[in-house]
Each structure stands twice: as C-alpha cells, then as structure tokens.
C-alpha cells in the first residue's frame, strides 16, 4: 500500500467527505416506494358516471351528505376514497336468511 500525503484546505476536505458519505448512504439505503398521498379528484360528470347516477341525483346526494363534495375554484370535485366509502352494501332480507 502506498501512502500519499498532500495538503487540502479544510472546507474542501469536508465537502469531499460529506459527498462520499452521502453517496454511500444513497447506495446502501433501501429504496422506498413513494406512495401517492393526494387522492384523485373527479369531476361531477366523472363521479356520476362512476356511480351510475344522473347529475341531479349526485347533486341531491351531495346536499344530503351521502357523498362529500369539495369546492375548488368555483367547481365541485369528489375524492375517489370518499366515493368508495359512500358505496355501502345493502343488507336485504334475502341475504339475512342465508346467515
């Protein structure tokens, strides 16, 4: 092994060490999946089509709190998770007898 000695200014030496450590951390750190945190926003027409209802019915459901709408810049949007939560299974008498 050969020893090499030379003079480097302290700030430059710190930068070299910091960059080497950061590169090593990035290389060995587990790759994490970035999960989308912003829910998909649907328009009134898209939401009505998704639910299979008319726009007036969707408007009534929003007014009665069955599904939550969000007003953004004068337009109404619906979050996909809210739409899916609004869809509930209806337990009928026929289904109750099978239990």
Strand order of the largest sheet: 1-3-2
What CATH first level of the domain at 41-86 would be assigned? Mainly Alpha
Low-confidence stretches: none
- How widely separated are the two ends? 79 Å
| Count of distinct strands | 3
What does this structure look like?
This protein has 99 residues and is mostly helical. A three-stranded antiparallel β-sheet has the order 1-3-2. It has a domain at 41-86: Multidrug-efflux Transporter Regulator, Chain: A, Domain 2 (Orthogonal Bundle), CATH 1.10.1660. It starts with 9 loop residues before the first helix and ends with a helix. It is elongated, with a radius of gyration of 29 Å. Strand 2 (70-72) and strand 3 (75-79) form a beta hairpin. The chain is built from five helices and three strands, in the order αβααββαα.
